[in-house]
Amino acid sequence: MGLKKRIWEILEVERPSAERERVLDAFDVFILTLILLNVVAVIAGTVKSVEARFQSALRWFEIFSVAVFTVEYLARVWACASQSEYSRPVIGRLRFMLRPIAIIDLLAILPFYLTFFTADLRFIRALRLFRLFRVAKLGRYSSSMRLFGRVFRNKKEELFVTAMVMMMMVIMSASLMYFAENEAQPDKFTDIPSTIWWAVMTLTTVGYGDIFPITTLGKCLTMAIAILGIGMFALPVGIFGAGFVEEIQKQKAGKTTCPHCGGEIG
């Protein structure tokens, strides 16, 4: 077996736990642990007392993590040429690099290197937030995350339609409330874009209470909009629930799903 193919199997190929080799399990455990420790480091680094005391340790841990993730990313790009769909040395690797999961891998390390090319401290602080993309790498090593990804791909059309309906509901609710409350509260419901804040808070049943209707028509509209919001924002939950049931039924029926394209195998 060639080196490229062996590295590809270690980094990319998904196998049932009973068939996995010890080296594959050890690699996954190491990367998973490193990702979780990075999330802890990012969170702890926002505490001023922790950052002041462990600044040097956090910095060296960041350098070590970026080095590991960089080697992992470059190894994936190099080894992908062992597969027929990425066999062309340049175009094949570019195709691999443009996959969503590969872009996430790149975003996990890119901010570290960009800090060497800018002196704007505000920009550097903003880039640090992108280190949280490392938690998205968990999707490679967690069967639950892969299941979630397959459900999202299978139900993307339904979720898109639901999102469009929700957007229409927000705009319609904001428009109706603007015309009902603008004269009574011109400082609160100043225009439709400003009223969208109220519409989102009401439809999601959060309701901060900073903006509320005082007219009879406005109160009646609010009651109707709040009731509609309960059902409307429950739709994505139902779609995801149905998708999870379908995927679990496929697994019980002996069908497996390709981790890359989402198609059925067997």
Structure description:
The chain is an all-alpha fold. It has two domains: about 5-140, Voltage-gated potassium channels. Chain C (Four Helix Bundle (Hemerythrin (Met), subunit A), Up-down Bundle); about 140-265, Helix Hairpins, CATH 1.10.287.70. It is built from twelve helices and two strands. A two-stranded antiparallel sheet has the order 1-2. A hairpin with a 6-residue loop joins β1 (about 255) and β2 (about 265). The relative contact order is 0.07.
Question: Strands of the largest sheet, in order across it?
Answer: 1-2
Computed over alpha carbons, the radius of gyration is: 24 Å
Beta-strand residue percentage: under 5%
The CATH homologous superfamily name of the largest domain equals: Voltage-gated potassium channels. Chain C
Average per-residue pLDDT, rounded, comes to: 78
Q: How many beta-strand elements?
A: 2
Largest sheet: 2 strands, antiparallel
Q: How would you briefly describe this protein structure?
A:
The chain is mainly alpha-helical and about 270 residues long. Helix content is about 70%, strand content about 0%. The protein has helices spanning about 5-10, 20-45, 50-80, 90-95, 100-115, 120-130, 140, 145-155, 155-180, 190-205, 215-230, 235-250; strands spanning about 255, 265.
SSE layout and pairings?
Elements: H1 3-11, H2 22-45, H3 48-79, H4 91-97, H5 100-114, H6 121-129, H7 138-141, H8 143-154, H9 156-181, H10 192-203, H11 216-232, H12 235-252, E1 256-257, E2 264-265
Antiparallel strand pairs: 1-2
